[in-house]
Amino acid sequence: MEIKFIAVGGTIDKVYFDSLSRYEIGESNINDILKDGRINFKYKVSSILKKDSLDMTDQDRLIIHQAVQAEINDKIIITHGTDTMIETAKVLADIKNKVIVLTGAMEPAKFKSSDAIFNIGFAVAAVQTLPHGVYLAISGKIFTPDNVMKNRILKQFEEKM
């Protein structure tokens, strides 16, 4: 079994640049997170976009869809910005015979207080145990794209009421 990680940007990969006093999306943090976690499975990482999810377009979602569709591995984790993660998950819903799990973070992975490490580990467990389909693994829960919303006040995802 091999897990494919596809990084498309988002807060999870943001880094702080003092000279600009703002954040910018840097290299994917997935390899560092997995190395520090002493994982025991095969994986590959591809970074296909470096975008804040608020800047993600339909064309970007098509690029993600094509990459997932073309992937030979049937277990795929996508790291994505949390603001439009749900929209991307819905676009991927027509892909069959794969377990696709989207995750991200509310704070950059480089921050000690970030939820990134937990969410990556949670997504790894989810992608290995769920049946084929598209899911979000974040905030300690597994969601389907049609039954989830982001609660910006609490900085977490929750089921739609």
UniProtKB/TrEMBL annotation:
Boundaries of every L-asparaginase N-terminal domain copy: 3-151
Domain of life: Bacteria
Stated name of the protein: AnsB: L-asparaginase
E.C. code: 3.5.1.1
Keyword tags: Hydrolase
Chain positions recorded as substrate binding sites: S53, T82, D83
InterPro entries hit by this protein: Asp/glu_Ase-like_sf (IPR036152), Asparaginase/glutaminase-like (IPR006034), L-asparaginase_N (IPR027474), L-asparaginase_N_sf (IPR037152)
Sequence intervals crossing the membrane: none
SUPFAM superfamilies (alphabetical): Glutaminase/Asparaginase
Active site positions: T11
MF terms in GO: asparaginase activity
Higher taxonomy: Bacteria, Pseudomonadati, Thermodesulfobacteriota, Desulfobacteria, Desulfobacterales
